[in-house]
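Deviation from plan, reported transparently: tryptophan complex.
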Amino acid sequence: MPKIILTGDRPTGRLHVGHYVGSLKRRVELQNSGEYDKIFIMIADAQALTDNADNPAKVRQNIIEVALDYLACGLDPEKVTIFIQSQVPELTELSFYYMNLVTVSRLQRNPTVKNEILMRNFETSIPVGFFTYPISQASDITAFKATTVPVGDDQLPMIEQAREIVRRFNQTYGDTLVEPEAVIPENEICQRLPGTDGKAKMSKSLGNCIYLADSAEELKRKIMNMYTDPNHIKVTDPGTVEGNAVFTYLDAFSRPEHFAKYLPDYESLDALKEHYRRGGLGDVKIKRFLNAVLEEELAPIRERRQELEANHIEEIYEMLRQGSVSAQKVAAQTLAEVKRSMKINYFEDGALMKEHAERNAQE
Ligand code: TRP
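Because the crystal trials were delayed, the predicted structure below was used instead.
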């Protein structure tokens, strides 16, 4: 069986370092591993509209932004197919059939849906499209026969839901769809990077994100204002590392060689943490170190992004068009198989007439 990756992002804003450590970086590694037969990266505009019905302009504007973020991180259109969800109408058709295989109560129990409903204060006015987006996500995955879905851990219930739909479909209509597996980051810290304010999740509305497109000055300003330990007031005070966003980011981004390069007084992150806990290590010093580490990682991405934005927008637009055309062909193939399995492929052959004649002959 071919190894196929599908994953994607909602274009509701530029991508940030949480996306980067949570998924983007891994995608580039998987792309370069050469182990996959096909890789599809989807800009999930239709899914973004499920909770932005009144703000389509936001979704539209972020399509190119997300594509720039992808390419800047090193996704290579020669190796991956980048496409736009709404340009593959087969996905909505698949969803319509999958809807019959999922109960309302199962969707209500989906932890990601539950949590997102709370976060968005939908209360009793949940858009039906939003409520059913796990089904549409199962279509995204199965349309490409994806075996592997690299995502953040918040998406695990979505993959589980997709697996259930696949099993239910195959049981009911015969083996047709492929059961996908999620791949989440190995480093637990990377699964959910907190915001710069120390809050659980980076989110544009909270204003606590570091974007891949941020300038060196913005990056530095955000790091210098980062949440640390509110009780660590004087340098000599003992400090707490747990829940301290600067240390969480260092857990996610720093490597042993960064110490030799930028902070040779410490041989490792453990040594730095130990000093902080003991007291005598100031926040400014650890923030400057984090800035050096992040700058090293993000500067090449930022530079590539600027170059692409300045000189290659037309090619990116064309790449998205071509990607969408080739994704659509693959999805159409799967949809045809699905309809064959469900025997709703009436005009592919004359079987409908023949069956009618046979039934008549028996009477
Ligand atoms: N739900 C994902 C997110 O919010 C985006 C997405 C849509 C996706 N369809 C997908 C991810 C299919 C993986 C596979 O980021």
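Residues 4-192+313-355 form a domain with the Rossmann fold fold (CATH 3.40.50.620). We consider this an acceptable substitute for the interim report.
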